[in-house]
């Protein structure tokens, strides 16, 4: 029997922030002249960069926009963040929450014709545990057993109710067993998703409808063409000119898109803009310096000037309305205090401030944010030098810890909020090169991972966020993101991906 206790991680967030006036919600879809749709139409979607890799072991945090096209996970999520059946139709947790048994969907084929079954699930999970970016995520997975072709049992070393959410993300992706060891998997994915890769070029990746998909009747288009456009302004111009059918945009571009007659969808999500600092750097190892950074930022000014008010000012990773959010930290006004920042620097032995290099990716919006932060930090004596890196260089720098600080878009909710804590706030975390750690956090993290019921997980998670905040966080939040996308008239059906789960199969294009 499927456990129904897992609550929506994103629907509550979207509703809560919409009520708070942060611009959440979805615009009414526009229809084409006739209302008839073309099931063979190719959606042209403008993207800021190519996928890092289609191999889940090597993919970057922002790659799901590509992965979700060709792959499916054991558990699925709606665009609003609600857990639902995926490649598994049912699941059951043992009484001690250390064993999850999945009933698998039958009649599913991979793009190469292989059968989806328990052996395929076992092969993928065991491969992910051996090497790559998912090793730490699946560290507590002790054993995978194919009980029968349609049933698989996962045994964990500790209570792991949180893994239901994790297996709705990249760790739950099932790759065709025959493709798992293919060195070209990064550019030649083989999954069970509604589309399959048809071409991978330097600045464009294309997909065609998978006619053997188990739910093929739901697929509303014949394929996708995802082409790279250098920045946000260029992507929006591509939609205006007809070169593209849709793209993600910044909140500041909404008026321009609406004036051009486009459909806008938007909702707050679990991503946030932040400064990630490397606590291995001598000055940044001092909690007082990190707290000085926290107090030096005028978040409300940045939200209004750069994001039309649609990036919610924040000093914590989780937005108001999300179950891990700390209500006492939602009012950011007390945490903009330049004089306090100067005092903290002086107490840290830096009365004349410090020099800090901040790396930033090539996208215009991050460069603009870095420049705004540079001007604000300068006022308290933190002299920032901005270094722009290429997209892949930025990913490599963050993964290897070869940076002092970066301005970045971080995902706090996917695959599960506790994974964010593990990666950024615990020793050995994937994005914690300085080994930041606090007494009590590992124990609280274990408590937050026991259950699959969010109401039972919120107290230890909130205690972790509060502890880290008070100690000077290694991740300095700026604002919680609102996802915004624009489509030309006649393109309908997509919902804002609150937790980064993209459903392009639901899109329809009117004739």
UniProtKB/TrEMBL annotation:
PANTHER family: PERIPLASMIC BINDING COMPONENT OF ABC TRANSPORTER, PERIPLASMIC OLIGOPEPTIDE-BINDING PROTEIN-RELATED. Keywords: Signal, Transport. Residues 1-20 form the signal peptide. Pfam families: SBP_bac_5. Belongs to the bacterial solute-binding protein 5 family. PROSITE patterns: PROKAR_LIPOPROTEIN. Residues 82-431 form the Solute-binding protein family domain. This is ABC transporter substrate-binding protein. It comes from Nonomuraea maheshkhaliensis. SUPFAM superfamilies: Periplasmic binding protein-like II. InterPro entries: Peptide/Ni-bd, SBP_5, SBP_5_dom. It comes from the Bacteria. It is found in: Cell envelope.
